Here is the input.
Amino acid sequence: QVQLVESGGGLVQAGVSLILSCAASGRTFSQYSLGWFRQAPGHEREFVAAINWIGGTTYYADSLKGRFAISRDNAKNTVYLQMNSLKPEDTAVYYCAATSSHCVGYGCYRGPSEYDYWGQGTQVTVSS
Here is the structure.
C-alpha cells in the first residue's frame, strides 16, 4: 500500500516556474514507477510525465517536453514536477500516481489505468 500526498500548487502568473512535490508513504517507494497527471474542468485526466522505478528513464507528454521535468528522490520518498514558463492552459488539478509495474516503454505509463495508487491532487492556477 502506498499513500501519496501532493503539495506545491497555487495561483501563479503566466511565465513563472513552480515545483510540485508528491510525498509517499511506505518503505518500498523505490520499487514504484511514478507519474504526474493533470485534469482541467470538463477535460479527461491527461498524462504529464513519468519516471521509472530506477529513476533513470523519464517520459513526457509531447506537448510538455522541454518545459516540464520529473525527478525523484528515493531517500526522501518524494517525486517532483518542475514546471517552467507556465501558461494559462496549464491550469488544472495535478495528481501524482504510483505503479508497481516494471514495464519498459512510454506506453506503460501514459494511461491512468496503469497506476495503482493516486494522490488527492493539488490545484495549479495560472493567470494571464
